[in-house]
Amino acid sequence: MITKNIMKRITPFLWEIPKDYRHDMKVPCRIFASEKMMDDIITDRSLEQLVNVACLQGIVKAAYVMPDVHEGYGFPIGGVAASACPGGFISPGGIGYDINCGVRLLTSEHSFEELKPHIRRLGEQLFLAIPSGLGKEGFWHLSNAQMDKLLSQGVPWMIHNGYGEQSDITFSESDGCLADADPDAVSQLAKSRGADQLGTLGSGNHFVEIDRVEQIFDSESAKAFGLFEGQVVILVHTGSRGLGHQVATDYIKIFMKAMPNYGISVPDIELACAPFDSGEGRDYFGAMSAAANFAWANRQGITHLIRNTWGKVLGSQAGSLSLLYDVAHNIAKIEEYPDDTGKMRRLLIHRKGATRAFWPGHPEIPEIYRPYGQPVLIPGSMGTSSYVLAGQKESGELSFGSCCHGAGRQMSRHEAKRAVRGEQVREDLAHQGIFVETDSMSGLAEEAPIAYKDVDDVVNVVSAAGIAKKVAKLRPVMVIKG
Amino acid sequence: MKSYRFAAHTSDTRLIAEAGDLESLFQAALDGMNCLIRQDTCEAAVDLPERITISLEADDTSVLLIDFLSEILSYSHLNKCMYCQAKFSVLKETSLAARIYGIKVDRFDRDVKAVTYHEAEVIRDMEGNYRTVIIFDV
Lengths: 482, 138
What we know:
The structure holds 2 protein chains of 2 kinds. Chain A is α+β, with helices and mostly antiparallel strands. Chain A has helices spanning about 35-40, 45-55, 110-115, 120-130, 145-155, 155-160, 165-170, 190-195, 220-225, 240-260, 280-315, 395-400, 415-420, 420-430, 440-445, 455-465; strands at about 10, 15, 30, 60-75, 75-85, 90, 100-110, 205-215, 230-240, 275, 320-330, 330-340, 345-350, 355, 375-380, 385-390, 400-405, 435, 470-480. Chain A has a single domain (about 5-410, about 450-480), classed as tRNA-splicing ligase RtcB, CATH 3.90.1860. Chain A is built from 16 helices and 19 strands. Chain A is globular, with a radius of gyration of 21 Å. Chain B has a single domain, classed as 3-Layer(bab) Sandwich (Archease, Possible Chaperone, Chain: A, domain 1). In chain B, the strands form 2 sheets. In chain B, strands 1, 2, 6, 7 and 8 form a 5-stranded antiparallel β-sheet that branches. A 3-stranded antiparallel β-sheet of chain B has the order 3-5-4. In chain B, about 50% of the residues are buried. The interface between A and B is large, with 42 and 32 residues.
């Protein structure tokens, strides 16, 4: 077990495991956490997993984890790792099986007080409209030709086919499409698994949530993001479904076989990697990008269903539902950062349970948000708050433009189910004015608020570290779970 | 003898499978995975009319077991089927051929995203029993 006494405390919210902690480490490990959070982090295997990441050949500067870190497999959840591009590695385990799992936030024109009489009905109708849970098919059944176009084009393909607005492209990270996507690198099995899953939520921690804006911290940024106090907003959390899971499964197997050809060995087989410029590396990057496009299109499909339902329930008073932003938190992207001499270099940034958080002025941020920083969406648990943050300057220097992605689990699913029943969770939440629609009571127990860290603590760390600033706090009023 | 049980893991699911022989170990691991996907369906099934055929080779038994479960998981999702019973025509340390029998279902309880290689290590104890840990991404 890694203890605090082997770590250097760089700032009150940044800790380092030195490179000489283990002989095979190539870089140090850096952990964003408060003292109190660190006491919890060291109790599971997160940091041992982070040390393994620091051993990857070609990793640049440090292996990072955010304050919502918890034990995963291979990479810890909340991890960020950069490799040279070209010249470095790519690792499917550094992205995860749910490629481009992510979050989007839609803003309404209405206050909670205006919509209060309709909220329960909206929740019921959204639950009926959005296929959730496992094995439920979506409304779109894609042919192979349609699938290939969608995998190449992502959100723009959805808009072209009438499932959204032009601005949905502008306000999605990377315009909802990675240009390196290669549908031919995606197996037929993966495509078949995804063929009926467009516009489906899935289960586990995926959800659609109606929230109200409880508090504004930064009025200028909030205004630019289209947020006001008391406003009703909708948060969507899902990913690339079976298609993405299959892509990751396929390529981890391919990489395991390829590693000896490149003289690569890893301390944990789930860290299997290949040179980015190898055939396997390029194929995976193309397939991963295609799966990321599928995930963006999936969240766009759900947005289409939400807008339809919103219009049907609210009729002439519905108004618009605008996309504030859509962020990925399981992805690898090519980005530019300065080296030690200040010269810009291209790096492949792996984020597994971490959100991109570009700083004010970054050209990849939509123009109207650019002076304030990239919107960063941090969902909490069902019973607590979620946050809208804005990326800040230090994120580029401290964490390769990365931030936390949620509250982070602190309790296993089995432990949560032993601690509380789903019916009790539903009842407790209802007493707080939070209503839940779900088919799965055991799933609800697994996702109970007690299973998660305090999202306020997590957000306070990234805010104090200067990675992102708080813009608004959201409070759930209606939760739709798979 | 064959059995499986679940152990703590913060975000995913850790399963421990044990058995007196290799075939039973593979079946125990499959039983455990099926319990995660949709509890009680396989135990309650009287007839298993669906069938897939699997043929695999791997560098070692641990990888073979994970690939075996991964393949079944993929087809479970694709065909909306619980594949309950494995009948092996070949099962060696690094290769297998099997028919897997199952039943169609309308939905699953849990999204098992993947079977990971993390911590998987098939070991044989002094009494000759096989044992491994398997981490499922859920």
